[in-house]
Amino acid sequence: MTELVAGLDARRVRANLEGVREEVTAAAERAGRGDAAEVQILAAVKYVPTAELPVLAEAGIGLLGENRAQDLQEKVAATGETFTWDFIGAVQSRKVRTIVPHVRLIHSIASESALGELAKHRDRARPGLEVLIEVNLSGEHGKAGIAPERLDEFIQRCPVPVAGLMTMPPLAERSQDSRRWFAALRELAQGRRLRHLSMGTTQDFAVAVEEGATIVRIGTRLYR
Predict the structure, then answer these.
(1) Is there a domain that residue 3 lies in?
(2) Residue 33 belongs to what domain range?
(3) Would 4 be classed as within a structural domain?
């Protein structure tokens, strides 16, 4: 079980953030992308206690992603307008009503029940709420995500605007092993003129940027 982060130091976190930015810039340049600033660095805070969040603000981090609806509510209540929030965890349908008032993006819409709850609770949503559809590109059994062949009809039935796609590639020892899945997600998004690609974590974000990521989800790299 992963332990909660404790004793964060703003100078160390800022230095780690700058290191990530440098790698993002280098990856964007390798891929011939015009502007690395279009890649958003999202700090994943599932294991960061509420009391440590002011350190992230001091370090210059403004975009946070939470995995749990209850923790999202607590952290938003404690920090007010300090951060912009996304929801990046698996979406439990019964939790949609508690998520939508607080976030600009839900990264992980992947079920019929989630679509139904989004429709039911649109009036509770933060203005401008958009979602990303999670795609199971590898076809792994038991893994969340819409199969690519179902994507078009799923997007058509989504009751809130779809801004892009998200994927979690299969576990791999080398970051390069994720490239094929990131490239496949990019092709799906380009074919549907979707602007956001949420892909890449601490282990493989540079490869994700090379393949077109617009949001990378970084956790331990920022805090260690």
Answers:
(1) no
(2) 10-223
(3) no
* CA 44 to chain CA mean position, Å: 8
**End-to-end alpha-carbon separation of the chain, Å?**
17
- CATH number of the domain enclosing 49: 3.20.20.10
Q: Quote the number of domains for the chain.
A: 1
Do the domain assignments include residue 53?
Answer: yes
Phi, psi of 74 (to 5 degrees): -65, -45
Q: Tens of pLDDT along 10-46?
A: 999 999 999 999 999 999 999 999 888 999 999 999 9
Specify the residue for token string 């009751």. 159
When pLDDT is cut at 50, 70 and 90, the band that residue 171 belongs to is confident
Q: What is the pLDDT of residues 84-118, one digit of tens each?
A: 999 999 999 999 999 999 999 999 999 999 999 99
- 156 contacts: CB under 8 Å, gap ≥ 6: none
Could you tell me if residue 2 is inside a domain?
Answer: no
Tens of pLDDT, residue by residue over 47-70, are 999 999 999 999 999 999 999 999
Pull the structure tokens for residue 55. 């350190």
Q: What is the 3-state secondary structure (H, E, C) of 96-156?
A: HHHHCCCCCEEEEECCHHHHHHHHHCHHHCCCCCEEEEEECCCCCCCCCCECHHHHHHHHH
